[in-house]
Amino acid sequence: MNFDSSPIAAIATAPGRGGIGVVRVSGKNISSIVEAVCATKGAELQPRHATFTNFVNADGSVIDQGLALYFKAPHSYTGEDVLELQGHGGPVVLQMLLTRCLEAGADIGLRMAQPGEFTHRAFLNDKLDLAQAEGVIDLIEASTEAAAKSASQSLSGAFSKTIQELVDKITNLRMLVEATLDFPEEEIDFLEKSDARGQLTGIREALQAVFAQASQGALLRDGLNIVLAGQPNVGKSSLLNALAGSDVAIVTAIAGTTRDKVIETIQIEGIPVNVIDTAGIRDASDATDEVERIGIERTWAAVKTADVIIHMLDASRGPTRADEQIVERFPENIPVMRIWNKIDLSGHRPAIDRMPDSTHIYVSATDLQGMDLLRGELLRLIGWQQTGESLYLARERHLIALKAAHDHLEIAAQHAAHDSEATDPALDLFAEELRLAQERLSSITGEFTSDDLLGVIFSRFCIGK
Ligand code: GDP
Ligand code: ZN
After folding, report:
1. Which ligand lies nearest the alpha carbon of 313?
2. What is the CATH number of domain 145-218+392-445?
3. Residue 438, SS3 per DSSP
4. What is the pTM of this model?
5. By alpha-carbon position, which residue is closest to atom 27 of ligand 1?
6. CA end-to-end span of the chain, whole Å?
């Protein structure tokens, strides 16, 4: 991705129709665009005030009317001069407005923004750090309220602040160690006098706590992927409805006529749960057209990434030969959970039975017996522990960095140990591991982050953000 510093423009609102749509422009010298498009002198737009105006073509004809907002650098989202034009939210009229802006800005090099480029500029201009920038997109993409809350924690800088506190503690300890390195005769005393080991233990404990919180938060982001398998009429759709707590799938009493959506996202305690109902997946070779074939292949690809396969059976009828064939189709490395449904008919009691081959759970999807057992087991499976604390919506990247920092601190602790007279603590190595730990932590907020990684992160944003 090629980011230069020329002014950029994009439609900032979602594609489709809506009450209001926004075209956003950011960069230097954009007052000429204000003058041209809003038919007004740039100076007349008071920064951060809404001005009702016509948006006009070069010949003076009106494209739309709406509000113009002007933000003077550095007091804007990107840290540059920003112009936001709020017009009517139709795809055509917004495209006309954008085209007009690009035309009016041709002489100052105005171009279309790339995905995430506004936020990338905000990062480069220190309006937010990398973890906060990731919070922006995670908030937009959040699929449950709990995920949105956690993303907003990251966006507000709470996660970054926690990381920064760890970095500061390590920096202090490094300064102590490095000062001592200049006076070798005092090395051995130093660790005792400054309680360097105690400080290191404190930092390691704090890091562990952050890691625990971040990995719980990562669950809110990534959720749980379930495959729901079983013969027609065992109650798959009913189970989905019971889990979701509302009617999301179509329940039918006639075998084989189920018209469930193939992948359904529900939530359990705020965790997004993606359920693939295999009733909807046929063999790709049965597909009647290309679109359907691609859909089927995608679904099978999703099956391979499932955390668990739920094999559902009718407890009032017992397993059949068809059930054996069902499980044969699934990847071997994914754990299978057996749900025995309709215990209201069979007379079983709601129960969970952890057998060596798989966990068996006895439920009734219609009168909801045993549903809490099932929910608890699903959450247990992905390691969800309900905590009262607000979580950071961490990403894989953050978890890897936290883990690496943790490992460096562990090696540092080994260098600081001196069990026998023969091995003096290796202070220089101790200091080096501290430095490495600090570097890994700082990569979370984007210090020492390569342009390539930044490119990858921001390119996943939507255009106009
Ligand atoms: P699917 O084909 O596996 O998705 O099965 P459905 O969810 O469409 O259910 C098939 C039929 O079984 C419907 O008439 C449901 O009302 C009924 N059913 C589902 N779960 C239960 C249950 O736990 N107890 C009883 N008595 N009937 C159920
Ligand atoms: Zn169904």
Report:
1. 1
2. 1.20.120.430
3. helix
4. 0.77
5. 342
6. 16
pLDDT tens per residue across span 59-72: 999 999 999 999 99
CA of 277 to the centre of ligand 1 (A): 14
Closest ligand (CA of 231)? 1
Residue 337 amino acid letter:
M
**Segment (H or E) for 420:** none
Distance CA 396, CA 268 (A): 22
Confidence label for 259 from pLDDT (cuts 50, 70 and 90)? very low
CB-defined site of ligand 1, < 6 Å: 230, 232-238, 251-253, 258, 279, 341-342, 344-345, 364-366
Report the CATH number of the 8-128 domain.
3.30.1360.120
Which option is the CATH number for 224-381: 3.10.20.30, 3.40.50.2000, 3.40.50.300, 1.10.287.130? 3.40.50.300
Cβ contacts of residue 332 below 8 Å, gap of 6+? none
Distance 253 CA to ligand 1 centre (A): 7
Starting at the earlier edge strand, list the strands of the sheet with 336-341: 263-268, 271-277, 224-230, 308-314, 336-341, 359-362, 351-354
- Give 72: exposed, middle or buried? Use CB within 10 Å, 0-12, 13-18, 19+: middle
Q: Determine whether the annotation assigns residue 258 to a binding site.
A: yes
Which residue ranges does the chain devote to CATH 3.30.1360.120? Answer: 8-128
365: left (phi over 0), alpha (psi -120 to 50) or beta: alpha
Residue in the block written with tokens 């693939």: 276
Give residue 126's region: left, alpha or beta (phi > 0; psi -120 to 50): left
Q: What ipTM was predicted for this assembly?
A: 0.97
How far away, in angstroms, is 239 Cα from ligand 1 center? 8
Q: Would the annotation count 25 as a binding residue?
A: no
379-423: pLDDT as tens digits: 998 888 866 667 888 889 999 999 999 999 999 998 887 654 545
CA dist 259 and 279 (Å) reads: 8
Ligand nearest the Cα atom of residue 339? 1
235 marked as part of a ligand binding site: yes
